[in-house]
Write a structure and sequence with these properties.
The structure is a single chain. By secondary structure, the chain is an all-alpha fold. 62% of the residues lie in helices and 0% in strands. It has nine helices and no strands. The protein is globular and about 45 Å long. The longest helix has 16 residues. It has one domain.
């Protein structure tokens, strides 16, 4: 079987994704967009159990799927609240001295992410999650 295109083109797709996140958030660099994206994914992941996280990750492109699970400690206590302001503050706490995430980071990353996923696969992953988790990925 040949290597799936998803993996062959993963680096270019991820670079394009980061460029779009940088543009959507008003960040100056892909490095800043990377931190913002990682923080948004971690903030979301902290509110899921392992089965929910795996179901969600199935709908992500290869590099985002890898970033979603990177440095994950499934034994870490789950966060319980879905308050958007509190989660936005949580996003800004990752690498705090190098994090330039705007208040709109969650919605900005959500909007860009939705343009980089297979819509039906992403919807299937979200369907297994609580309403608050589905709302996280709306571009409000």
């Amino acid at each position: 079987m040949p290597v799936p295109m998803e993996y062959r083109l993963a680096s270019q797709d991820f670079d394009r994704f980061l460029a779009e996140v940088a543009e959507a958030t008003g960040l100056a660099t892909r490095n800043q967009a990377y931190t913002t994206t990682q923080a948004v994914l971690q903030t979301f992941r902290r509110r899921l159990d392992t089965a929910q996280a795996i179901a969600f990750a199935q709908g992500l492109p290869a590099m985002l799927r890898a970033l979603f699970v990177m440095d994950w400690n499934p034994q870490e206590p789950r966060m319980t609240g879905w308050d958007r302001d509190a989660m936005s503050e949580e996003v800004r706490r990752l690498r705090i001295d190098h994090n330039f995430s705007p208040d709109s980071a969650i919605a900005d990353v959500a909007r860009v992410l939705r343009s980089h996923v297979d819509a039906s696969a992403f919807a299937r992953g979200l369907a297994a999650l609580p309403p608050e988790a589905r709302a996280f990925w709306s571009a409000k």
